[in-house]
C-alpha cells in the first residue's frame, strides 16, 4: 500500500509540472525605421514554442543615387510574455522565410540580437545570415525563396529567471528582439531598389524552449 501511495505522490508531482500552453499570453510593441506602425503582424504557436513576426514594409535601397541611410533598416520588437511561475523560457534562435530578387552585385544581410530585461542579458553572438548568389540575382521579379535558421549556440542561449516559489497567478518577462536588415554592393555601380519581393511578407520565427523550475 505504501508503495502505491508513494507512486501516486510521484505521479502527482510530475503532473504538477506539466506545461500548460493556454496559460501563456503575449503582448507586443515595436518601433524602428524598418517597421513603421501597422507594418508588422505577430502570431504565437498553440504550443507556445514559436513566435512569428511578419514584416510587410521593409524598404532598403543601395546604389550611386541612393542615400546611404537607406542601406540598412532596424526594427525592435518587444514581447511581454506572461506565464506560469513554475516555468521559464529559453531563446533558441530564429528561422527566416521570404522571397528575394537581388540585382547583380548586391547581397543582403540579416542581423539579430536578443535581450531579456529581467536578467539584463543580451545575446550578440548570433549567426549572421547572408542572402547572396545567382539563385537570387537570376530569379526574376518573382524572386527566390530564402529559408534559413539562425540558431544560438547552447552556451550562448539566454533564459528568463524562475520566479519566487508561490508567485501567483502568473509571472512575466520582456524579450527584446532587435533586427537589422542591410544591403551591400559587392562591385562598383551595383544598385538595388527594395529588399524582399514587393507584395510578399518576410517572416521571422523565434524559437522558445520551456523548462520547469526546480524549487
UniProtKB/TrEMBL annotation:
Pfam families found in the cross-reference section: DUF4360 (PF14273)
Signal peptide as annotated in the record: 1-16
Highest taxon in the source lineage: Eukaryota
Keyword Signal: yes
InterPro entries: DUF4360
Alphabetic keyword roster: Signal
PANTHER family: PSEUDOURIDINE SYNTHASE RSUA_RLUA-LIKE DOMAIN-CONTAINING PROTEIN, PTHR38847
Protein name: Secreted protein
Source species of the chain: Apodospora peruviana
